[in-house]
Amino acid sequence: MTASLQKTQVDLAGLMRVLGEALYSTPFVAIRELVQNGHDSCTRRAKESTEPFEPKIQVRTRPGELIIEDNGAGLTLEEIHTYLATVGRGYTRTLREKGGGDDLIGYFGLGFLSAFAISHRVEFWTCSFQAPGLAHRFVSVSGESYSVVVAANRAVGTQVRLFLKDEMPMLGDPAIVETWLRKYCCLLKHPVALNGGVAVNAEPPPWRRQSELSDLRYKTLSLAFARHFENVFDPIATIPVNRADYAVQGMLWIQDGGSFASSDNRNLSVFVRGMLIGEDERNLLPRWAGFVGGVIESTLLQPTASRESLRNDDAYEFIAGVLQQALVSGLRQIAESDPASWRRILSRHNESLLAAALVDATLFKLVGDDVTVRTTEGDFTMPALLERCNGTVYLSYEERAGVESMLLKALKQPIVLGCRFAAGPFCARYAQAHGAPIVVLGTDTGAETLFRPSDLARDEIAVLEACFFAADRDVLVRQFDPPFLPFAVLTNPEAEIRRRLESDEADRRIGQAVLGLARQFTAGIAQQKLAKVYVNAANPVIRELLQLSNERRTQAVAALQPLLSLCADARGTPDMERALTDFGNALLTLLRDGP
Ligand SMILES: Nc1ncnc2c1ncn2[C@@H]1O[C@H](COP(=O)(O)OP(=O)(O)OP(=O)(O)O)[C@@H](O)[C@H]1O
């Protein structure tokens, strides 16, 4: 049996409801769609009519009514049927398909339906430039059916009268309508006015007049324009986007408000052929640009059918790349020519720029020397840090200062706080790019750099090792700064955890099930000593020990032991009183038996 081809049925009422009411996120979109129709009609008349005319779109509000008038091309009776009353068809697309509608905004042949979402009756009075003197009135209550009659003569153009639904009174409120008109229409080419006032788009955006403006005037106008679009922050400086070759122009700006690396205050308003499509097309800006706002217009970007967002196509990716380039070169420009703004940008967005530099190599070059990292000695730029630390970067990921940090602190050497977002990788990248050694504290390699091999002979080292020997610690004779410290003690946190968990005390204090699990874990930790004692061969007291007789050395070491146990007591809080008493007694013995 051959399958017969059936024609798909359309539930017109259902379809009209979906298209009219559910396609758009807000009823205010109807203002945009109808003004855009008037605008396209003016564009058409300017192209096709030989008569000179001054395009104009007027919006009027009355309680319960919204009227949109234009002096554009108007429609003939045939065009009313073919375009206005045929869903999915419009003169706009027909003209584009013929290759002549590049500057038209409409495309889908759907926008007029938005009128039915806000009105219970729509009247469309029109007179075509092709037949002046013959006007028509189209009337429809739901969009599903309509009537057309010849109307009293009127000037070429169209008047659309919307009798608003009871629940849409706001669309008859002039203040509300003005807000939306200014938002949607500020970049339209033909003037759009409300209730006979000055056109809401009287002032063209700065980038369209850049050639006629002085630099200073352009800067002032750009900042004012940015301020109008940026909801929350004041703009510090603007960055032009002017790639006529890529059909994108406009501006970006840097927000004046502290940001963190994770802040995302990106906002980008996008206009296509002068009509606002979206106010938050942030994904066109690089992810790292959480402190950037902007307005652009582009003919490459394609709106979706609701004209409320953009299609995520190749052009979208391409424009995103163009904006990233514009942003980076704009930042460079500011750095070179506007030091005051650059300083403000750095101080407000240091954290964000630090992270951004890691994902964009050009940006890394641009801001690498200027951003600061937080250290134990305050904030430093990398060049200042390297100068202060004789070309070495010290970095610590530990929250609490360990012994190595204390050593460096005593030497007033800044240690970069690596736990701050992006600081560690940033320093590593910077150090690598500048051939500077980087010492990560708390690691074996870090310790090797700080605790250098000593210049003592083997037997001298053995003597010192024996002096400070204890079963639970390793003794290493090294040389380190500052020389006034006789020794430094590094505790081994893993061994300490193991010791605590294996103590009888733990049996008393920790539940058996938890303790069992924890002990399973610590069983995997190799048996290690609790601490490493670094004896400083550069310290005069330690060197002096080597000169003493065995007996005197034992006495001197006995005096040093309590001090050592103050820092080496990895078993918990050191017993200060006991240490001082022992120290006093040992000192007394030394003095009594002195030479
Ligand atoms: N004010 C007007 N003046 C002249 N023609 C108009 C006017 N309003 C609508 N039309 C005609 O009706 C057609 C359909 O309008 P509609 O708003 O539904 O779609 P569109 O503007 O072509 O496309 P889109 O859905 O993308 O806005 C238009 O293409 C145009 O030919």
TrEMBL record:
GO terms for molecular function: ATP binding. Keywords: ATP-binding, Chaperone, Nucleotide-binding. SUPFAM superfamilies: ATPase domain of HSP90 chaperone/DNA topoisomerase II/histidine kinase (SSF55874), Ribosomal protein S5 domain 2-like (SSF54211). InterPro entries: HATPase_C_sf (IPR036890), Hsp90_fam (IPR001404), Ribosomal_Su5_D2-typ_SF (IPR020568). Belongs to the heat shock protein 90 family. This is ATP-binding protein.
